[in-house]
Design goal:
The protein is α+β, with helices and mostly antiparallel strands. Helix content is 46%, strand content 17%.
Length: 704
C-alpha cells in the first residue's frame, strides 16, 4: 500500500470514527434528555391526576355532610309531596345541595334508627323481669333513592346501553335539549367583559339547571322506594367495587335536634369518577391518561385510548420512584410514568408517544453525520494535491537513497521548500557529502593501516625473535605492543671477547613516532655498544643526540648492560627505567635502581655505571612499565610488589617457564580490561661454562 493511500485512509479513519462517536454520543444524550424531560412533565401530570381524585373524594364527602342535614323525616312519614317540585322544599334543597356531583351518584340509601324503648315508670318496675326482656321495635328496611334511574328516565343521563354514537331520547319532556347550554369559553375570555357580568351569567345558568332537575324528579318519583333482595345484592357488589377503586365509602349520620335518627350512604359510580379525573387531564402532545386498579385493570377515558395502549405492560403496578415498571421493547416508543394513590391503590399514569420525536432525533443525527461526511469529502479533495506533492518529494528522496546505496556519493536532492521535507532533503545532501568525505578518510586510514602493518613487521624484524644461548648464559625476550606499533624495544647480542650485551627501553608515546625513534636507537646501540669502553659515556652521548634531534615530547628510558663471561659480572646503566631485578639462585632478589634521568629529557644530568657480580643459577629479569602498570577491571595496577613475590617463588625456573608465569599472572590480573601500554619482558639466566665444568671435574679426580 502506497503512502498516499495510507495518508488518505488514516485521515478518514481519524475523522470518521471520532465524528461517529460524537454524533452517537450526542444522539444518546439527546434521547436521554428528551426522555427525562418528558418523564418529568408526565410525572407532574400523574401527580395532578392523583390530587384531582383526592379533590373529588373531598367534594363527595362535603356533599354527604350537606345532604345529612335534609329533613328526612318527611320521607319516613310518607307525607305526599307537592306536585310542583319547585315549591317542594325537600327536593329543591336536595338538588341544590347535590350540585354538579349529581351525575356521580348512583343511589342514596337511608336507614332509620328505631327509637329506644321507654323505661318503666314506678318503683320496682325497672327491676321487674318483664322490663328486662322488653325489646324495641324491629329495624325498618332501608330506603333507597336510585338517582341513576331517575336521571336516565328524566333525560338528564343517557341510558346505560346507549353508546356515544346514539342520540339521547328526544321530546319536549325528556330530551336533554330542554336544558340550557353553558356559555361558550369565548364568552368568559372575550376582551371588554368584566367579572361581574361573567358571575351573573354563571349564576343564571346554575339556577336554571336546578329548576330543570327538580322538574325531572317530579316526573319519576316512583324510582325510589324499598329494595328487593336482588337489588340489595347488586348494590353490595357495586359498593365493593367503589371501595376498591376509590378507597372509601361515602356516608354520614342524620341528626335532628341532637338526636341520631338514622344514617345514609351514597353509592358513587367509580367509573364516572375516573372518567371525570381522566377527561379533565390535559392532553398536550397526544398524551393518554390512564388508571390501573389493584386488580390490574386499565381504565381510560376513551375506548380508543385503551386500544392504543394494548402493547404496553400497564397492568403492572407503578413503583415508588414514579417510573413505570415492566419495560419492554414497545416502551422504546413511549414514555410511561405512573403515580400510585396511597388510599385507593389506583395508579394514575400518563403514556406519551415519543416515536415521532425519536425519529426526528435519529433523522437529525443522520443528517449531521451526512453533513460531516460531506465536509470530510471536501477535505479529502483538498488533501489529494498536498499528498501528491508529499509523495513526489519522498519518491525523489527514495530514488536518491537507492543511488547512494549503490555507491554514487555525488547524488544530490534539490531543496524546494523549508518544511520538514525540505529539511529532510538538506539533511540527505549533507549525509551524502559526509559519506563522501568519510569514504576519503577511510581510504586514508586504510593506507595508514597498511603502512602501520608494514612498520609492525619491520619492528618485529628489528627485535630478536629466537632465544640466544652462549656458553655461560641463555637469553629470551618478548614484547606485546598495546597498539599495532609500540614504543617498547629490547635486544640481546654477543659482543667481542665473548661478552653479552643486554638492553631494554621504552620510548614515550605510541605509534609511528615512537617506533621510528625505537628503530633508530636500536641501530645506534647495535653499532656503538661493542665499541663503547664506558656505558655511562655512551648514555651521555645518546642523551645529547636525542635531545638535539627529536621533539621535546619524545624521550625514552633505557636499561643497557654488558654481561662479562669470564668475571661473571654485570655492568649496567639505568637511564630512568623501572627498577630491574636479579634473581639469585638462593631465592633472594637484587634490585637494579635508576642511575640517571631518561634519555632526551633534561639532558646533561650525567649517568653512573654500576657493576654486580653474578653466579651460576642467577637470573636477570628485565621489563618495561607496561607490565607493572597493567590494570584490572576495577582499575588496580599489577604493581612491583606483586611482581617481586612472583619472582621470589620461581628461583629455579627456566627462561620459558618464568616468562610464561609472568605473562599468565598479568593476564589473570587484567581480565577483560584493555591493555593501555606496551609490555616487554627479557630474561637472562647465568650458567656454568664448559671450561669451568671441566676444571671442576679435574679437581675432583685429583682429590680422589
Amino acid at each position: 500500500m502506497k503512502l498516499r493511500l495510507k495518508l488518505i485512509l488514516a485521515f478518514l479513519l481519524l475523522s470518521v470514527v471520532p465524528l461517529s462517536g460524537v454524533i452517537l454520543y450526542s444522539y444518546i444524550n439527546s434521547q436521554r434528555a428528551v426522555r427525562q424531560a418528558l418523564e418529568a412533565e408526565a410525572q407532574m401530570t400523574a401527580d395532578e391526576m392523583s390530587r384531582r381524585l383526592e379533590g373529588v373524594r373531598n367534594d363527595l364527602r362535603r356533599q354527604m355532610d350537606r345532604l345529612s342535614e335534609l329533613p328526612f323525616r318527611k320521607f319516613l312519614g310518607g307525607k305526599a309531596l307537592d306536585t310542583d317540585l319547585q315549591k317542594d322544599p325537600v327536593f329543591a334543597e336536595l338538588m341544590k345541595r347535590m350540585g354538579e356531583e349529581d351525575v356521580l351518584f348512583e343511589s342514596l340509601e337511608f336507614v332509620r334508627h328505631p327509637p329506644a324503648p321507654p323505661e318503666p315508670q314506678g318503683p320496682g318496675l325497672r327491676d321487674h323481669p318483664s322490663a328486662k326482656t322488653q325489646k324495641g321495635p324491629p329495624p325498618e328496611p332501608p330506603l333507597v333513592i336510585f338517582l341513576s334511574r331517575l336521571f336516565e328516565r328524566s333525560g338528564l343521563r343517557r341510558p346505560r346501553a346507549a353508546t356515544d354514537t346514539e342520540s339521547p331520547p328526544a321530546g319536549p319532556e325528556l330530551g336533554v335539549d330542554r336544558f340550557p347550554k353553558p356559555p361558550s369559553p369565548s364568552f368568559f375570555g372575550e376582551a371588554g367583559r368584566n367579572t361581574a357580568i361573567q358571575a351573573e351569567a354563571a349564576a343564571r345558568f346554575a339556577a336554571e339547571m336546578v329548576r330543570k332537575k327538580a322538574e325531572a324528579l317530579h316526573k319519576v318519583m316512583e324510582s325510589w322506594g324499598q329494595l328487593t333482595d336482588a337489588e340489595r345484592t347488586a348494590l353490595e357488589e357495586k359498593r365493593k367495587q367503589m371501595k376498591l377503586l376509590l378507597g372509601r365509602e361515602f356516608g354520614s349520620e342524620v341528626r335532628r335536634e341532637g338526636e341520631v335518627i338514622g344514617s345514609f350512604r351514597a353509592q358513587v359510580s367509580p367509573e364516572k369518577v375516573l372518567e371525570r379525573v381522566l377527561r379533565r387531564t390535559r392532553r398536550l402532545q397526544n398524551e393518554i391518561p390512564f388508571a390501573v386498579d389493584a386488580g390490574g385493570r386499565v381504565h381510560t377515558a376513551d375506548p380508543a385510548d385503551a386500544q392504543a395502549l394494548q402493547g404496553l405492560p400497564l397492568a403492572n403496578t407503578a413503583n415508588g420512584s414514579g417510573k413505570f415498571a415492566g419495560q419492554t421493547s414497545d416502551m422504546n416508543n413511549w414514555v410511561v410514568v405512573a403515580r400510585k394513590d396511597s388510599e385507593s391503590g389506583l395508579s394514575f399514569g400518563i403514556a406519551r408517544p415519543i416515536k415521532q420525536s425519536m425519529q426526528e432525533l435519529r433523522q437529525t443525527a443522520v443528517r449531521n453525520f451526512g453533513y460531516g461526511l460531506g465536509i470530510m469529502g471536501l477535505a479529502v479533495l483538498g488533501i489529494l494535491p498536498l499528498s501528491g506533492r508529499l509523495t513526489r518529494n519522498l519518491t525523489l528522496l527514495t530514488r536518491s537513497a537507492e543511488e547512494l546505496a549503490q555507491g554514487n556519493l555525488d547524488v544530490h536532492v534539490p531543496v524546494r521548500s523549508r518544511d520538514e521535507l525540505g529539511q529532510l532533503a538538506a539533511t540527505f545532501n549533507r549525509m551524502s557529502l559526509q559519506l563522501k568525505e568519510g569514504q576519503g578518510r577511510l581510504m586514508e586510514q586504510e593506507r595508514l593501516r597498511k603502512e602501520l602493518e608494514m612498520c609492525r613487521r619491520i619492528q618485529e624484524e628489528l627485535l630478536p625473535r629466537e632465544p640466544l644461548s652462549c656458553g655461560f648464559a641463555q637469553v629470551q625476550g618478548i614484547s606485546i605492543p598495546a597498539r599495532e606499533v609500540g614504543g617498547d624495544f629490547f635486544n640481546y647480542f654477543e659482543l667481542p671477547g665473548g661478552n653479552l650485551g643486554l638492553l631494554i627501553g621504552d620510548v614515550s608515546g605510541k605509534g609511528v613516532p615512537a617506533a621510528l625513534l625505537m628503530a633508530s636507537l636500536q641501530a645506534t646501540l647495535s653499532a656503538r655498544l661493542p665499541l663503547a669502553a664506558s656505558l655511562s659515556e655512551l648514555a651521555e652521548q645518546l642523551d645529547e643526540e636525542i635531545a638535539r634531534s627529536t621533539p621535546p615530547e619524545l624521550f625514552l628510558t633505557l636499561f643497557v648492560a654488558v654481561l662479562n663471561s669470564r668475571e661473571k659480572t654485570l655492568r649496567y646503566v639505568n637511564a630512568g627505567h623501572n627498577t630491574q631485578y636479579a634473581l639469585r639462585a638462593d631465592g633472594s632478589l637484587h634490585r637494579f635502581e635508576s642511575t640517571g634521568r631518561p634519555l632526551g629529557l633534561l639532558p646533561g644530568g650525567g649517568y653512573v655505571e654500576q657493576c654486580v657480580a653474578l653466579g651460576p643459577g642467577d637470573s636477570i629479569f628485565l621489563y618495561t612499565d607496561g607490565l607493572v602498570e597493567t590494570q584490572s577491571g576495577t582499575g588496580e595496577e599489577f604493581g612491583a610488589e606483586r611482581l617481586e613475590r612472583l619472582l621470589a617463588r620461581e628461583p629455579e625456573s627456566s627462561l620459558e617457564c618464568l616468562i610464561a608465569r609472568a605473562e599468565s599472572a598479568v593476564r589473570d590480573h587484567q581480565g577483560a580490561a584493555e591493555a593501555l601500554d606496551d609490555a616487554t619482558r627479557l630474561v637472562a639466566k647465568v650458567q656454568e661454562s664448559v671450561g669451568e665444568h671441566s676444571a671442576q671435574l679435574q679437581s675432583l679426580h685429583a682429590t680422589n
